[in-house]
TrEMBL record:
Protein species of origin: Niabella yanshanensis
Keyword terms, alphabetized: Hydrolase
Record Gene3D superfamilies: alpha/beta hydrolase
One Pfam entry name: Abhydrolase_6
Entry protein name: Alpha/beta hydrolase
């Protein structure tokens, strides 16, 4: 009888394990909705959506403000695209148990060469970015590069393009083009698609490759990404 009670107690304790908090940072201009299709076992996803940059705010101070929502002393962070770059910057400011990058890059060497050139020549300050961003014909080209394949995905991406805060857009694009990072923590997992046209896979060294995955795979390949994250998080102590 006592043996059966002990088994019941252990089973109950296992079922009542507290959910692990996982902090999620979306990609450029997006919000928590891009994580909708993820299915992470026994986890509470806490979303850190983009803040509006303050006048003359440094990138470091912006990163610290983004990190204020993190309560754990050593968190697990998932960062998508630009969100992954910010996750790595957060990891410079505090201990982090695990950084999981999706469709992102780890250091300056992985930033596409033409992007570095645009940043170095400050061409992003010359091009009428706001007018280009508002051009509907631009949407079709941008969706192709993003990997938004279905009408639902295209409508989703177009929605963010229409509502994006212009000050944030100009600021964030400048941070991406001029990102300088050489530090890559040992506890980084990098999930990348080999059909990503935003950050082409050729110069990258991801730990996991999603074959046929585009830059939008956080939504349309979420089951495969979830399986990888579940395995990774399960092994994190």
């Amino acid at each position: 009888m006592n043996g059966l009670l002990n088994i019941f107690r252990r089973k109950k304790q296992k079922q009542e394990l507290p959910k692990r908090k996982i902090y999620c940072i979306p990609g450029f201009g997006a919000d928590d909705k891009i994580f909708t299709n993820l299915s992470i076992d026994n986890a509470e996803l806490i979303f850190i959506n983009w803040l509006k940059p303050l006048p003359k705010e440094s990138y470091k101070n912006y990163v610290l403000r983004m990190a204020e929502k993190i309560q754990e002393p050593a968190p697990v962070i998932i960062g998508v695209s630009f969100g992954g770059m910010v996750a790595l910057e957060i990891a410079k400011t505090r201990p982090v148990k695990q950084v999981i990058l999706v469709s992102s890059i780890k250091n300056t060497d992985e930033l596409p060469g033409k992007w570095k050139l645009i940043g170095r020549l400050r061409l992003n300050h010359i091009f009428p970015i706001q007018r280009i961003q508002a051009n509907e014909r631009f949407f079709a080209m941008a969706n192709k590069r993003l990997g938004a394949l279905t009408k639902e995905e295209q409508d989703f991406a177009n929605h963010y393009r229409r509502i994006i805060d212009k000050e944030y857009m100009i600021w964030a694009l400048n941070q991406i083009l001029n990102w300088r990072n050489a530090e890559v923590p040992a506890n980084v997992v990098h999930i990348h698609g080999d059909a990503d046209l935003i950050f082409p896979i050729k110069p990258l060294k991801p730990t996991h490759i999603i074959h046929g995955g585009t830059h939008m795979m956080i939504m349309n390949r979420a089951a495969e990404i979830s399986a990888i994250i579940n395995k990774v998080v399960k092994d994190v102590k």
